[in-house]
Amino acid sequence: MIQRIQTLWLAFVIIVTGASFFFPIVDFAFDFKSMPTIQHYGLLPQESTPDSQQFIQITPAWSLVFMQIGVSIIALISIFLYKNRQVQLKFVASGLLLVTIYIAFLFFVKIDGLEKAIQQEYSMPQIIYNKISISFPVLQLLLFIIAQRAIRKDDRLVRSSDRLR
Q1: Of 15, 59, 99, 157, which has fewest CB within 10 angstroms of its CB?
Q2: Is 1.20.140.150 the CATH classification of the domain at 5-164?
Q3: In this model, does residue 155 exceed pLDDT 80?
Q4: What gap in Å lies between CA 76 and CA 71, rounded to an integer?
């Protein structure tokens, strides 16, 4: 049924995914023309005030956006696969894999590549991670693991009750 505990965990995955669009992931602090400058980097471009010395992220990080949307869609589909627990387990496992790829891609490709690009253009940047938005992918990973455990537990319960009949 749809009111099982794994539905709650998968719904939290969708909520965390939605929240990740509103926070910058990392801030790069560097010197531009002898002035301290901060560049925010997130899934979507962050607005900057006209009087601040901040560079504006012009385009969204499309690869990260599509991965987060994929995670959300997988969680949503998994919620409605409550009748077929084996398929639901496979979807949750694919969600785990996608979140793991997202975390690796974020840290090893995106942030590292941006740091090198800023270093070539301006100066050595200081990387300031936003603790809230960095914790979102890890939280998604944990929620998928908890949902997977709940689905397995539910499956064992149903199988044991089938044996008793």
Answers
A1: 59
A2: yes
A3: yes
A4: 9
Residues paired with residue 40 on neighbouring β-strands, in sequence order: 27
29/118 Cα distance (integer angstroms): 10
Give burial (CB, 10 Å; 0-12/13-18/19+) of 16: buried
- What is the DSSP code (8-state) at residue 51? T
Please state, in angstroms and rounded to a whole number, the distance separating the CA atoms of residues 12 and 44. 21
- Report how far residue 44's alpha carbon sits from residue 116's, in angstroms, rounded to the nearest whole number: 21
pTM: 0.82
All structural domains of the chain with their residue ranges: 5-164
For residue 96, the model assigns a pLDDT of 95
Cα 29 to chain centroid, rounded: 23
Q: Which of 2, 40, 36, 44 is nearest to 19 (CA)?
A: 44
Contact indicator for 42, 27 with CB cutoff of 8 Å: no
The DSSP code sequence of 123-154 is: SPPEEEE-HHHHHHHHHHHHHHHHHHHHHHHH
Position 20 pLDDT exceeds 80:
yes
Sign of the CA dihedral with 70 first, then 101, 80, and 72 last: negative
Nearest CA to 13 among 57, 66, 73, 63?
A: 73
